[in-house]
Design brief:
The protein is of the alpha/beta class and 511 residues long. It contains 12 helices and 16 strands. Bound molecules: calcium ion. It holds the Pfam family Tannase.
């Protein structure tokens, strides 16, 4: 109790110091005192504190863990966390989403959809966590323990949020006035879990490229892989050599075909496809005419391209996973996960598949029925966000159209079902937005160069000032001076017909 009082006193001292222009020294001392942090109801162990100054806005970093226990598998478990508490605190709190299977505590900075300024740099208190187990990013051994699995499925987000809010109150002597969540991939899935299962936790949520149902998406990729195997020559290692199914020239030809059909539909031929819903491309248009074999595809190649970009269907013809969009990043090699036409890449475990046949129904059985844990982890089923919306909370989704891992169409499908299923007297436009990002790969990258966008500012403005976001300007690496508006789905950025084609201001959102 004494420690708690002393921590509270430190917090008050910090507030006084901040009000009168604290020196780094005294803020540093307050940070150091957080080492003795104790919170009623939490078995928090602080591993260390670090006062970070001289590299942008100063903050106190507290690393620790809570919920220490022995798992059903006899292994020690805890939820590891790291929280950054800036001196110049905005009064806001943000929970940073994870990635992969989590298992590590990443630095808490809040960089998802934050543009050039991380949440931490703009004064948010930011917490990150390992979701309740430790291991390398694809180590799934924690699933031997029920609580660790439930934590991964989303329970840890609730626990860490409650803890983080308590630390913030303790440190600053006052509660955060608004709480946010931002994550991509697994972090995007956690964002959706939060809105679905813990609708009162956050005032604003950003869900990027969510891992909605990885069993189904991996199944769809495996099926495409098998389609590619069928037309691949057998390599020296005795298995289909997918790198030989298409030459780079073939891939370029496919990309050119897609761009020829779809680039101009947004009013400008700029190598980007913004009006994706109008994009109709038929790979059979690239099949060699009789007597030619150059700058064209063999019929079996065209068939495989069509299959790769079609929905994965079960035996009765129902969609088991939606199509991946035809987009400009299909042959990208610059991202962690290569484009969809790069199935030769051996870096990704789900592509290590040499089969020549694929039974979709059997695969569905395996991922849906035989893996009940995954079903709980999935976020495709729960679509009613009525409590979340009624409270006044807001959610923004984003998804790269060239994401080769999770199809943007699956997020679109969820978004539409969610809007329909959520019965409130508040129009969906008043609490939910979806932004599709042309040419962007999984969470970032891609040839479109539109990976930098600040949705966090828009979200805060929506939550705190009631100002709903419209377009969000995006820019990025290539070309460096090009910006485009991202438009709220189902609208897209159309070139006005005049003005600098590299400037977002020359575009308008159209439907
Ligand atoms: Ca275009």
């Amino acid at each position: 109790m004494r420690t708690l009082l002393s921590a509270t006193a430190s917090a008050l001292l910090l507030m006084v110091q901040l009000a009168y222009g604290a020196s780094d020294q005294s803020a540093g001392a307050t940070c150091k005192a957080a080492r003795a942090l104790e919170l009623p109801g939490f078995d928090v162990k602080v591993a260390g504190t670090d006062y970070v100054s001289g590299k942008g806005p100063s903050y106190c970093l507290v690393n620790g863990s809570f919920e220490h226990r022995t798992g059903a598998d006899g292994k020690p478990y805890a939820i590891g966390f790291s929280i950054a508490l800036p001196d110049d605190w905005s009064g806001r709190f943000l929970v940073q989403g994870g990635g992969g299977l989590n298992g590590v505590v990443k630095p808490p900075i809040g960089d998802v959809a934050a543009g050039a300024n991380t949440a931490l740099a703009r004064g948010f208190a930011v917490i990150s966590h390992d979701s309740g187990h430790r291991g390398e990013v694809w180590d799934g051994s924690f699933k031997a323990d029920q609580i660790a699995t439930l934590n991964f499925a989303g329970w840890s987000v609730e626990k860490v949020t409650v803890l983080g809010k308590a630390i913030v109150s303790n440190y600053y002597g006052t509660s955060a006035h608004h709480s946010y969540f931002a994550g991509c991939s697994t972090g995007g899935r956690e964002a959706m879990t939060s809105a679905q299962r813990f609708p009162l936790l956050f005032d604003g949520i950003i869900a990027g490229a969510p891992a909605i149902r990885t069993g189904r998406s991996n199944m769809s990729l495996a099926q495409k892989n098998v389609a590619m195997n069928r037309i691949s020559p057998v390599g020296t290692d005795g298995v289909p050599d997918r790198s030989a199914a298409f030459s780079d020239a073939d891939r370029k030809l496919v990309l050119s075909g897609i761009l020829n059909a779809c680039d101009k539909l947004d009013g400008i031929e700029d190598g980007m496809i913004a009006n994706a819903s109008a994009c109709k491309f038929d790979p059979s248009s690239l099949i060699c005419a009789s007597g030619t074999s150059k700058d064209c595809l063999r019929p079996e190649q065209a068939k495989v391209v069509a299959e790769i970009f079609s929905p994965t269907l079960d035996a009765s013809g129902r969609t088991a996973y939606p199509a991946f969009p035809y987009d400009s990043g299909i042959m990208s090699t610059t991202d962690a996960i290569p484009g969809l036409m790069r199935f030769d890449d051996k870096r990704n475990r789900q592509f290590a598949n040499h089969a020549l046949t694929f039974d979709v129904d059997d695969a569905i059985e395996k991922v849906d029925v035989d893996d009940p844990q995954q079903r709980l982890i999935n976020v495709d089923q729960w679509t009613d966000l009525s409590s979340f919306a009624s409270k006044g909370s807001k959610i923004i989704f984003f998804h790269g159209m060239s994401d080769p891992w999770f199809s943007a169409n699956d997020t679109i499908d969820f978004f539409n079902r969610m809007k329909k299923a959520t019965k409130t007297n508040i129009p969906a436009d008043d609490w939910a937005r979806l932004y599709l990002v042309p040419g962007m790969s999984h969470c970032r990258g891609g040839p479109g160069g539109l990976e930098k966008f600040d949705m966090l500012t828009k979200l805060v403005d929506w939550v705190e000032n009631g100002k709903a976001p419209q377009s969000v300007d995006a820019g990025g690496a290539a070309p460096a001076d090009r910006t485009r508006p991202l438009c709220p789905y189902p609208s897209y950025a159309h070139y006005k017909g005049e003005g600098d084609a590299n400037n977002a201001a020359s575009f308008e959102c159209r439907r």
